[in-house]
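hey so i finally got around to running the thing on that chain from the lab meeting. sorry it took forever, my laptop kept dying and i had to restart like 3 times. anyway pasting the input first so we r on the same page abt which one it is
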Amino acid sequence: MATESPDLRECGLERLRRGEEGSVDGHRVVGGSRGSRTLLETERAAVDAVLESMGPKDSVVVLAADQSTVLVGPALTHLRFTEVVGAFVATGLLMLLLGASGWVRRAMLALPMPIVMGMVAAVFLRFGVDLVRAVHHDVPIAVPMVLAFVLLHVWPAAGRRMPPMIGTLLVGVIAVAAAGRFDATGHGGAVFAHPVLQAPEWSWQAMVELVVPLAITVLVVQNGQGVAVLKAAGHDAPVNAVTMGCGLWSMLTACVGTVCTCLTGPTNAILSSSGERHRHYTGALLVGALAVVFGLMSPLFTRAMLAAPPAFIATLAGLAMLRVLQGAFTTAFGGRFSLGALVTFVVTVADIALLNIGAAFWGLIAGFAVSWLLERGDFARADGT
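ok and heres what got predicted. didnt touch it at all, straight out
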């Protein structure tokens, strides 16, 4: 998420607004159905959340890989969307084969956790930065939410009766309503989603340009985040099974124009940031159930998100990620491999893509190389333990 281009993000929102105003089919975004994308993505998220939460009660949530949309946007300037869909299918097949080979788990085990968490800290940093900006730019909305969050934490009796994030959400809704900041004009339209099927078209140009960058983005950057935050919380995510699941569902949902599936970093981080570890799976089940509801009614919820002040979303997300960000920094810089973690963090924050692959991947490569050259003793101690 840290590598998302502001221009592309604004372009996407503008497409949504134009679609709802009627100059573009109200149920379509770039190359596919807005409703169908959300519906199928969240339906498979619900299924994967239920399956992966059973057994030893290790909880994971699998959703769509949002960073993949940054790769797809520029490609659509010279590729047909059906060719991009074909690349989605090929990427899913590649992930399925890599998961079945067992290579992905071995590769992740070879990366020191502090270096991975340096990347996670860099990716999640924008949530904290956006929170500060929201407080600065929109005091009437952001400040009451922050005060509610702090109060429910420092007053334990109230916090037990009202979870801090739920209280923060309710205060934010009240602040938005009191300020008259909910802009519902021009946002009429459908309530329920209507999937639109897309037939893949095979193109060597699309395969060369998209398949490897998409696979690296999902397996290394986004699944790496998810595995790292779950491991930090005491969960042993089944890396190879998750990889195979991401590949299989990416192939199936490509038929409705959906980007590849990933093991979500922020969602799993929030789910595992509090409460008893053996009960985290119940949160994954609830997220899956809510995802189905949100998917079925995605046009309605999309309009609601667009109508709400940006500070409301930024404050809510920033407060939810504060403890997660703290944990990422603590793990990255609290012991061994701290120099490699720092290099990973700096390269990722720099947000410079090479060869159509985002900065988070190159941050991991640079951090590992620096640690291998300058922190050999840390590798020796890690092997000894």
